Amino acid sequence: MGSFTHILAGFSLGFRHRHELRRLLDTTQPNSSILELDPEELISSGFAALALDFDGVLAGHGALVPLPEAVAWMKRCEALFGGERIFILSNKPTDARRQWFAENFPAMRFISGVRKKPYPDGLYKTGELAVVPLSSIMMVDDRLLTGCLAALVAGATPCYIRRPYVSFHHRPVAELFFWLLRAVERVLVRII
Predict the structure, then answer these.
(1) What is the distance between the alpha carbons of residues 25 and 169, in angstroms, rounded to a whole number?
(2) pTM (whole model) above 0.70
(3) Cα(111)–Cα(51) distance, rounded to whole angstroms?
(4) Which CATH superfamily is domain 2-191 in?
(5) What is the pLDDT of residue 110?
(6) Paired residues of 88 in beta bridges
(7) What residues are paired with 141 via a beta bridge?
């Protein structure tokens, strides 16, 4: 029943925010990956905190650690934002991932104990912990109807990653499933 309720919430919230979601697809500045997000420009644009999805944004689906290029990008962000204002907001916050971040980015925190995206609870908690207004938080996600939608509902700014990191070699079934899910989301957003 929980999964059904979660999916139903996604469709209901998605319908309410369909125009904003469509604008994300139609934007003239597509973000293929986090590497196209310049931390200096984010700071100068008024962002005070980042909420990052893991799967697709920092590594392929189900990976235990971020890709080396994502690590280098996070180090740049940490130098500007401070690690205490960068959060991992993943629907799959595994113990292995938490341990890796504790060892490599100890100031960055996982948001847990809240309802999963698309519910905005994780972003509300991000704002409280970072002590910043929700409007100054950027949520970086590769899914329209989870992280991007949660950002819209919360009043944060969504950053839609159009070409997420994938590893068909390591997890072909899971990656194919999420590739299809992302495609279905884009179609739904365009037709509703």
Answers:
(1) 28
(2) yes
(3) 9
(4) HAD superfamily/HAD-like (3.40.50.1000)
(5) 95
(6) 52, 110
(7) 160
